[in-house]
Prior knowledge:
0% of the residues lie in helices and 51% in strands. By secondary structure, it is mainly β. It is globular, with a radius of gyration of 13 Å. The N and C termini lie far apart (40 Å).
Amino acid sequence: QVQLVESGGGLVQAGGSLRLACAVSGGTFSLYAMGWFRQVPGKERELVAGINSRGGTTYYADSVKVRFTIARDNAKNTVYLQMTSLKSEDTAVYYCAARGIVISESFREYPYWGQGTQVTVSS
């Protein structure tokens, strides 16, 4: 079974930074595209950032471009989301997810998910 375990969420003041990590086990991490999604109550899960299996292609939602950076370390089977200049609008539950090779913008295309980690940005 493919398992994804997230860490790094918490409470931070507006303008601050936070780094999320997602460790993957039970599969071939180097063959997975990885995505970071976020969800707030009453809204659909949104792709924030994605990275393909080799790490050469990335995707960012317009709302987080420049402020957030996704990276992966295939030797450690871990994907990261570095978040800077955080705003109250970034408050959400953040999930990491895995699928095959290439990034998809749709949460429905990701079969493997972490448990989610709460990020709260106070103003």
